[in-house]
Amino acid sequence: MSAPLHDLTLAEASAAIARRRLSPVEYLDALRARFEALEPRLNTTILPLWEAARAEAQKAARRIARSGPRSPLDGLPVGLKDIIDLAGHPTTCHSRHLLGNVKAADAAVVARLRAAGAVFPAKLATHEFAIGGPAFDLPFPPARNPWNTAHHPGGSSSGSGSAVAAGILPAALGTDTGGSVRHPASHCGIVGMKATYGLVSRRGVFPLAFTLDHVGPLTRDVASNALLLGAMAGHDPQDPGSVVRRAENYRRHLRKGLKGLSIGFVRHFHETDQPATEEVAAALEAAARLMAREGAKVKPVTLPSLTDFAAVNRVILTSEAASIHGRWLREAPEGYSALTRKRLLPGLFVRAEDYVQAQRRRRELVAAVEAAFAGVDLLLTASSMDPACRIDDAEAVEATYSRQARTPFNVTGHPALTLMCGLSKAEGLPLSLQLVGRYFDEATIYRAAAAYERAAPWAALRPAL
Amino acid sequence: MNEDEAAARAPGLGEAWRARAEEVAEAAAQARMMAQGFRAPADETAEPMPAFAVPAPARAVR
């Protein structure tokens, strides 16, 4: 192989292993060297498990030599946000509350990937309990942005975004309750997918808010994301939010292009609701023009305001989170970072009436987005309204929660993917867009995202580390 | 009982929060603000979103 092994995408590594041009062990060793060189600057990992993963990669190598790969993921490494259970290891949630929380069983999504042959070299940094970060008063340091280590990598799946963008891992799992897969994907210049609510089991994943939580893949390219989601999706009778659906091969649709697709551009999210920087707005306009040149019909679409979606999300999220954290909040608040307490505590003060009103308004918001899909196949929106801020700028970090357009699709449950659409001029930080699809139509999102990725120059860019 | 103590008492915040009155007041205010942040539903007798409402499959373009 001519390119450095850490530059391979998950899909490329999978193809090379299938052709017996790459050994899973050789690949993992190269990634481990990358991890050892970069980890002191990036803080991606809470629990490194490279030795255990190497033993599994050796088994995969023997299996592949004997009878070929068990699946396209056989022997390939996938990182896990440390709120996702891995049998025999602690799930700390990046918190001192759970330092000794050793789990007996894999999360359902990990079990699916393990059955496909994937190996797990790292439990990755997160915002504490997927909500409180980046924080500097926790037992583990916050992950850093590989494009500029003084900057926020996005969160809460911060280690997942950082490790994938840095080439330490070709793929990682994150979770997304208000945008937490898509935020690090946006700030780290990679691809993050929050699939339809119910498509991926959440059993064995520490909950933040039951009715908003999703598990999603982060990868360096669209094809790898489609590959990984295909292996993650599937019915789990033990997750009450899991849907019965046949597995789908999303990769079948990647070469179909944009011709014939109708895309609704939701400009008011970034023009009036939460005005984006000029660079972000210009990058979105350029992306829309490129999609039109590639054959899509792009037209304006209006949805309810971002403010409405965000407030509904926060009332529901904090209420449900308070039902999980209430005892610790009341009896051991010092166990949390100050930021986590600040984010969780309002949930104890939300009235039951307000929670129900938020769930009632939520149905109206779902209906509004569904009505928009009567006239278009996809929605194009902003993801973040700004490039990544400095990680030590508390005020700017706080603003990332409101200055984004990801939360609406946790409220409605529609599938949504973010990918890179530019670089900021001053600091060379990634800018990103979001594509949203009809329920369970992840394939059309991947189709459009792959076509955009081929036509735009961003996929080849890597952080200079 | 002063106002701060009353605010903390409602959600059951006791001894562990005695020195954190400012955090408590801020959280109470934040909760009120969030609840006023979205438009009131058009019909206040409508069923709310049920928990774990798995979306109905959509017609895809493919």
Automatic annotation (TrEMBL), chain A:
Keywords: Ligase, Transferase. One of its GO terms (molecular function) is asparaginyl-tRNA synthase (glutamine-hydrolyzing) activity. Its EC number is 6.3.5.6, 6.3.5.7. Pfam families: Amidase. Residues 28-445 form the Amidase domain. SUPFAM superfamilies: Amidase signature (AS) enzymes (SSF75304). It is an enzyme of class 6 (ligase). This is Aspartyl-tRNA(Asn)/glutamyl-tRNA(Gln) amidotransferase subunit A. It comes from Neoroseomonas alkaliterrae.
Automatic annotation (TrEMBL), chain B:
It comes from the Bacteria. This is Uncharacterized protein. It comes from Neoroseomonas alkaliterrae.
